[in-house]
Amino acid sequence: MGALLTVFLKELRENARDRRTMLSALVLGPLGAPLLFTIMLNASVVGRASAPNLVAFLEREGVRVHDIPGGDAQAAAIVRGHGTRLALVIPPDYGARFATARPARVQLYTDTADASAGTDRARAQSLLRGYAGQIATWRLQARGISPSITQPVVVDEVDVSTPAARALAVLGMLSYFIVFATLMGGLYVAIDATAGERERGSLEPLLTLPVSRSALVAGKILTASAYMALSLGLTVTAFSVCLRFLHLDSLGMALELSPRIGLAIFGVVLPFVLLGASLMTIVASFTRSYREAQSWLAAVILVPTVPIMFAGVYQVELRSSLLWIPSLSQHLLIGALLKGDSLQPSDVLLSVGTTLAAGLLLAGIAMRLYEREKILG
Amino acid sequence: MIVLESLAKRFGGVEAVRDVSLVAGDGRVTGLLGPNGAGKSTTLRLLYGVLTPDRGRALIDGIEVATDRRAALATMGVLPHNAGIYPHLTTRENIRYFGALHGLAGAALEARIDELCGLLDLGGIADRRAKGFSQGERLKVALARALVHRPKNLVLDEPTNGLDVLATRNLRDVIRRLREAGHCVLFSSHVMQEVAALCDEIVIIAGGRAVARGTPAELQAGIGGGSLEDAFIAALAAAGG
Fold it and tell me: Does B144 contact A at CB distance below 8 Å?
């Protein structure tokens, strides 16, 4: 026990001084949370003052509007430079033309070569059309003409996606990211403690000490677990903070991450930390060098995210029969927590139990690996 | 005291060590001399327990390494070939880590670290992180680390590799002082002058076998005079190396 603690404290301190470890544990996960913002429609607007009602309408519809100074050139530059996917330029004469019921032009700058901007573009166009249609209706009504006379054919688009389904897609992303960030938190610790230690030539001296090798390995796995737990905590906190500023309800989603729910998410993912740390330790122990370990682990940490991706695509709902699968069970429990469902104790127990059992099994395998002569490479 | 009895170790089709026996006594420096690839490192690895012999046994103060590894290792300080230290830890922290794993703690451990920093002239870098240390500085830290628990027996694998003249000389002084303090020192080298300058007893290894042993004088006498180098070459020739 003493050796385990000694290894744990030393690795903890050593890794705290390693920039790569700290970046991946402290920065990467929390940085991912703001990425969620990208699902929001962002638009830059030039000349808001000329059309305050139009901009207010867009904001009411959930568009995040950034004012930029300048004119056409700036709008084109910012879209081309991918500063934003959409820029709306409102010319100075917009107000005058609008007031006299002449067609008031605005320019929507987009980059059609940017395939990922397609949905944003379509949504912006439909919003602007909607606004124009609303104004036209009012103008006709003011002149005593029924607006229906201008609509010989009406196309009603029916969006069959429900707010819940849209929310579920976001949830899938969220749990995917939480699991990924958790693994990243321990990635460099696991590499450094195994392949790194061997490459530096400090593994052989370590193995000549009169301590059990299982204690050494346990200390290393525990350190990776601690960094993973730290990363997990920071990531959940960052999401909780970000979601407070992100008004997802404007997209028709109700998504809340209160401190209580955040803590519950931390709790259901925590058992997964041991599994991830042991898995990475095993894989890194087989590799010959730091670099090789890095390449292998980059692929291996995707493995636990595969079930989550499938669950996202097929919109798998929480079922007890699926909760014995680690990482999938964490995903399903996170989803249930975010939707505000209360968890069945038996479900939580099944998830925690199987995940911990798998983690202990892998930790045992890692310890066995270090009893082999070949561990020195 | 270190005793090796007919050690043998095979890796796949390669017989790295075929038959090595030796006795390294207390208060003596024993040199394992042999060309590169002769089986020196494998022999020492069998001795300090990271490899298990196919045949034969290694005894440290009467304890067999293969059957009671931890007890045997407790009395041994080991400096493996190209031993690395932790770059993010200071000299003191590097030494303290191994001390703690030997079960030392508190004031006794700190006093021992101070003592080692004095013995190995590490005062100037005691509180600096090891990243960027020279080869000589790294070696001294690794040696201090191996000595932290005052081991009765010391095993050094090619300790002078990559050291400059001054650092080599300092290391020699340290080894002599350890001998005077009654330690059993076993070290390997492929440099003959190295071994000649330091050893009370030499064991020449070639092709995985101990082919000659004795004091430098005995080895020279064995070939009817001549230099130690002649004796070394003659031993290798006799072994077919």
Answer: no
pLDDT of A34 strictly over 90: no
Of all residues in chain B, the percent with pLDDT exceeding 90 is 71
Task: Write out A203-238 in H/E/C secondary structure.
Answer: HHHHHCCCCCHHHHHHHHHHHHHHHHHHHHHHHHHH
Torsion sign (Cα): A267, A268, A274, A278: negative
Collapsed DSSP state (helix, strand, coil) of residue B198: helix
Question: In whole angstroms, how far apart are CA A272 and each of A65, A112, A354, A376, B22?
Answer: 40, 42, 10, 29, 52
Can you list the positions of beta strands (E) in chain A?
Answer: 42-46, 64-67, 87-89, 107-109
Six-digit token pair at A74? 């700036």
pLDDT top residue among A160 and B20 = B20
Return the pLDDT at A151.
76
Q: Where are the domains of chain A?
A: 2-37+171-376, 42-161
Q: How many CA atoms does the CB half-sphere of B195 hold within 13 Å?
A: 31
- Chain B residues in contact with A373 by the CB 8 A cut-off are 50-52
3-class secondary structure, B15: strand
Q: Residue B120's CB: how many other CB atoms inside 10 A?
A: 21
How many DSSP H helices and E strands does chain A contain?
16, 4
Q: Are A265 and A334 in contact (CB under 8 A)?
A: yes
Q: Which of A127-136, A189-198, A199-208 has the weakest average pLDDT?
A: A127-136
CATH architecture assignment, domain A42-161: 3-Layer(aba) Sandwich (3.40)
CA–CA distance from B197 to each of B175, B194, B206, B215 (Å)?
11, 5, 21, 12
Write the pLDDT tens digit of every residue in B82-107.
899 999 999 999 999 999 999 999 99
Closest-CA distance of chain B to residue A222, Å: 17
CA-based nearest residue in chain B for residue A17: B88
Position A242 pLDDT exceeds 80: no
A51-66 exposure pattern, b = at least 16 Cβ within 10 A, e = fewer: beebbebbeebbbbee
Average pLDDT over residues A263-287: 95
d(CA B189, CA B175): 14
β-partners of residue B7 are B20
- A15, A188, A197, A208: which to substitute to probe chain B, counting the most B Cβ within 10 Å? A208
Is residue B241 pLDDT above 70, yes or no? Answer: no
Query: Which residue in the block uniquely carries the two structure tokens 């494998």?
Result: B42
